[in-house]
Model the fold of this input.
Amino acid sequence: MIDTLELTRDDKLRVELLSDFYTFVRVFYKLRTNKDWETSAPIGRESHYVSISNALTDVFYHRVTNLQIWCPPRYAKSEMCTNFIAWALARYPDCSFLYTSYSHDLAAYHTNNVRKIMLLPEYQELFNARISSATKAKDNFETVQGGIVLAAGVGGSIVGKGAGIKGVDRFGGCVIIDDSIKPTEAASDTVRASTNEWYLSTLQSRRNSPNTPFIFIGQRVHEDDLAANLALGFDSNKWETLDLPALDKVGNALNPKMHTKEKLLEMQKTMPYIFAAQMQQDPMPAGGALFKREYFPILDEEPEMLSTFITADTAETEKTYNDATVFSFWGLYYINNMGMETKQIGLHWIDCIEVRIEPKDLENEFLSFYLCCMRHPVPPTIAAIEKKSTGVTLVSVLQDKIRGIQIREIERSASAGSKADRFIAVQAPAAEKLISFTKDAKHVEMCIKHMMKITANNSHRFDDICDTFCDAVNLGLINKTIRFASKARDSQNKVLEQLAANYKQDLTARVNLYGNFKQ
Done:
């Protein structure tokens, strides 16, 4: 740790502070609060503070334009952002920043911390940035060099203000969105819709330059929160995401000093929905999930298939915040228990892709997926496609172009029941662990996470992957309308065996009658 007593006597320190953002954070946190900064020490990865520092530094150097940082609450995310503004102003005092949060008071609290850092004697001794005496407000102040720091609440007016600097190639400031929705209001459709609309109609236009960065930082609170929509590109921008779950995939805590592994596992049991969203950054819908991770066995090797087929659910648009088009590839096989093959049929999820494309690209996307499936040792014999506008068109085209595969239409009607009815109907085969994956297949996590978000009350956001799942379970396990390719081969083999036996019997009779002639 740098000795902060040397701040005013060492020019090398100025260079170090300006060149390394994380050093700046640790030094000025101590100066402002008189408390030591404690770096987290997770097992198997770098400190999340280092990860956030690196991500924000990438924004400063224009390596990233739109950045999301998903982080549990109370993990010093706002502290990092306020220091980032003070650090950037130390580099370029004319930068303009717009700091937003779900309330104006909260945003003002954070911008006031920026002001406190900049008013420290050590900051003023080391750097040229000075707050103008004409602006004393904690939520709206300027530097004498023309820089601006403005606080705003989500939904509020931002008149005549923006972030960044016109006509410069270097960093000129940014927009920061720090917790756009209050967690206790996340379940409100009205609040979420209002937040999304405010972002699109008001905040998005606050860039003073095309290269002005946007930074979203906060915990996830709902499947349909602003963070989710940004990740899906509903603003037509590409966003980089730093995802920091409190508990990683192998069960290690992100910040053991804040939450131990044991504490996190306890939270997971006692408050599963809050834990999934705010701590794991993977919100689960309310209403109770129909499918659990343990329902889906992960096999070391793909089983020998009796038959394979494709199910497809097509969408109407390429917009990433709308429904997706999904193609799934399936195989039927005899389940093996403790080394013994049973006559119980299992359904294996061989492959799955989720894309958002225009209807005109649907045919080529399907054909590409189909050709990949045809490379399987047991090629698909059936493609089942939902009967709706884009699906009907695809069925018509494929029936004219492809030979050797049966194209089936899956019809959804009121008489067949609601979506919830369809999902509930296929829960039992899943709970019986009849649907499996192959270890390390690229689609496993995507599909299982999707299935774990499906609810009986339709409170989930997307269900396109689950639709292909339902069709496959119905075709292969419930209605059993998929013909086993192996049965056809067995029948053919029996004919060949019978012909061979007849030929051998005839040859034996000839030898007995005429003798075994050799030339």
In short: Confidence is low (pLDDT under 50) at residues 1-8, 486-493. Residues 140 and 150 are 4 Å apart (CA to CA). The radius of gyration is 31 Å. The chain has two domains: 43-244, 293-478.
